[in-house]
Give the backbone structure.
Amino acid sequence: MVQDQGRRRARVLFVDRAVESPLRERWERIRAWFQERLRARREWLCLPVALAIAVLGESVLPVLAVVVAVPLVRRWLRGRALTQERERRADGVVELCGAVVGELRAGHEPGQALLVAVRGTGVMGTAEAAVSAAARFGGDVPGTLGQAAREPGLDGLAGVAACWRVAVDGGTGLAAGLDRLEGALRAERRRREELRAQLAGAWSTVAVLALLPVLGLGLGAALGADPLRVLLHTPAGLVCLVAGGLLEAAGLCWAGRIVRAGEAA
């Protein structure tokens, strides 16, 4: 009896897992593929919404509006992705400073410490090869770091280059300078996160204002006024639709500009 239980347990732990593992990996690959394709074409989600409105309103105007909506949504999504990538790179520079400091205090040479940190963080993108070559073969590391700092999100590398140049020319400890730089970059990131938290309420207000026309249409449909027929099939409704759309776009742009000005400040 004990042997049978041990065999069943061994089958569950090893055989079943060995069978399920390839299936699970295949499922994960398929799901990742779909998520990547959906993330790359998210702007086309406007099409099903427009088709639903076109069917409910019995008009082709919502489908024609997709021609204008898709490029605008694509531009917005692209800007959002660039912002996220820039913030990810900025966080990577902070990690790079900490990694270099750790390697230096472990007794490694500056070039070797930078090489290990660059490979570990993987934040430099296209500039990684140039920085790694300069660190490996004794090239112009500060100059290479300064060139990499021109890329979006890698501004902190200019501070790393300055600390490297001062350490080489003046003999000042590189680890101490990078440690202070890391603290400054972390403080800047905390301020940015606090500002984003404070502006979350403002962005929520902008989102609510953007949804008010949709809520108005739903309320009108609930009262039996058939707002889609009025907006899409009558001259006065078309005028109101165009004027309302322009005013809505202007209001959203103005509110977004105000909030972004607060973020920039």
Q: What stands out?
A: The two ends are 73 Å apart (CA to CA). The chain is about 85% helix and 0% strand. Confidence is low (pLDDT under 50) at residues 8-20.
